[in-house]
Design a protein that fits this description.
The complex is a heterodimer of chains A (116) and B (114). By secondary structure, chain A is mainly β. Chain A is built from no helices and twelve strands. Classes of the chains: A mainly beta (116), B mainly beta (114). At the A-B interface, strand 5, strand 6, strand 10 and strand 11 of A face strand 5 and strand 10 of B.
């Protein structure tokens, strides 16, 4: 089946420093799945951060960027300068159309902690 | 503002008891989903629905039933709760299927089965 692997556990970054959260994917029944980053702030549900549906394209939102790389099957999340408000759990996900039903497959999530 | 609400927000249940988790959306979306998240795992799809009075099995449906009595409401039912069902449960909605559309999530329900 499909799978998403992302930087595990917790990442701690000092405020104003750069961030990268790694994400690689494997889609078994579709060559070019849609790729997503969702974010969950404390006490809230997941919300879409960015989405890219075309290989080679870059998505961006709130200072975050991710590029859909089909050669390396990667979709790493980057930000040049993090803020304390970026503290949250980040989930990489792909959408597929398997067995006639479309679905999202999520990574395990990466908790980002920003040190002031 | 799109909204998905879940109740209860947390629950402690006894093994073998019945548990019902409720989800309500005001997005006017056709699709609704139930996921669970365990420590060390990503969200996994339990059941979903694309129209009222119909539900579909997701990737891990065993031990769960779902009910969609109206477009706005989607319930997850554990007839005989077990220790292994301790997890955080998320409900979501979308106006198209998962391949195309952004999903809007509720805040989650933390279920502890003792």
């Amino acid at each position: 089946g499909d799978s998403v692997t992302q930087t595990e556990g917790q990442v701690t970054v000092s405020e104003s420093k750069s961030l990268i959260i790694n994400c690689t994917y494997s889609a078994t029944s579709i060559a070019y799945p849609n790729l997503f980053w969702y974010v969950r702030y404390p006490g809230e549900g997941l919300q879409l951060l960015l989405k890219v549906i075309t290989a080679g394209q870059k998505g961006s939102s709130r200072g975050f960027e991710a590029t859909y790389n089909k050669e390396t099957t990667s979709f790493h999340l980057q930000k040049a300068s993090v803020q304390e408000s970026d503290s949250a759990v980040y989930y990489c996900a792909l959408s597929d159309y398997t067995g006639g039903a479309d679905r999202l497959t999520f990574g395990k999530g990466t908790q980002l902690i920003i040190q002031p | 503002e799109a909204a998905v609400t879940q109740s209860p927000r947390s629950k402690v249940a006894v093994t073998g008891g019945k548990v019902t988790l409720s989800c309500h959306q005001t997005n006017n979306h056709d699709y609704m989903y139930w996921y669970r998240q365990d420590t060390g795992h990503g969200l996994r799809l339990i059941h979903y629905s694309y129209v009222a009075d119909s539900t579909e099995k997701g990737d891990i449906p065993d031990g769960y039933k779902a009910s969609r009595p109206s477009q706005e409401n989607f319930s997850l039912i554990l007839e005989l709760a077990s220790l292994s069902q301790t997890a955080v449960y998320f409900c979501a909605s979308s106006d198209w299927g998962a391949f195309y559309a952004e999903q809007f999530f509720g805040p989650g329900t933390r279920l502890t089965v003792l």
